[in-house]
Each structure stands twice: as structure tokens, then as C-alpha cells.
Amino acid sequence: YFRTPGKFKVILAVHSDDTGSEPYLYSLTEKRVLALYDYFDAHAAQTENLMGYPLGPSEPLKPNTSIASRGANRRVEIFIVPGPVLVSEAKSGR
């Protein structure tokens, strides 16, 4: 997804559970976003189209009432969005 500039945008949404204060949790997810940037920077051809969003505990999948539920809420969601190059190719029928 990173080899052709402008073909895709990759969005990394990083979540946490609600264990800790909001400032701590947002700082934690921000550090996790930066760690993902470092990983992709070391392993991808180019990362200009990579965007990270530290979301903290704002969008839980499950109630934070058990260890298992909190584990499900600590996650990274990866969204692959068409970029201008892919949209242009689709319009031209390629």
C-alpha cells in the first residue's frame, strides 16, 4: 500500500481501555501511534500517506468491566482509504 505514492492513505486508529486518567490514556495512545510510525518508517518504502489517530478510551468495543473486555478495547484499527491516484485510475477504467 505504500509503494505507489498517492494510491492509498493508511489510517491507524489507536485505542485504549479506560484504566487510568484521560490525559494518561491519550498520551499512551499517542506514544503507540509514534511507535507504529517508527515501525512503518523502518519497513515501508515511503510513509507520506500514513496517518495516525490516538483515540484513547473514546470508542470502546465493549464495556470496560472485565480484563477480557478491556483487552478488546486496547487495539489498533487500520483503515485503507483510496487516494487520488487510485480514484483517478478507477475513473479512467484502469
Salient structural properties:
94 residues; alpha+beta; 3-stranded mixed β-sheet; 3 helices; 3 strands; elongated
What does this structure look like?
This protein is of the alpha+beta class and 94 residues long. It is built from three helices and three strands; from the N terminus they run E-H-E-H-E-H. It has helices at residues 22-43, 67-73, 84-92; strands at residues 8-15, 50-56, 76-82. Strands 2-1-3 form a three-stranded mixed beta sheet. The two termini are 17 Å apart.
What is the number of helices?
3
Could you say which overall geometry the principal axes of the C-alpha atoms support? Answer: elongated
Averaged pLDDT, please? 89
Rg on CA atoms, Å: 16 Å
Helix content: 40-55%
Q: How many extended strands? A: 3
* Category from helices, strands and their pairing: alpha+beta
| Sheet of most strands | 3 strands, mixed
* Order of SSEs: EHEHEH
Alpha carbon gap, first and last residue = 17 Å
Q: Give the strand content.
A: 15-25%
- Uncertain regions: pLDDT < 50 for 5+ in a row? none
The main sheet orders its strands as 2-1-3
Task: Give the helices and strands, then pairings.
Elements: E1 8-15, H1 22-43, E2 50-56, H2 67-73, E3 76-82, H3 84-92
Parallel strand pairs: 1-2
Antiparallel strand pairs: 1-3
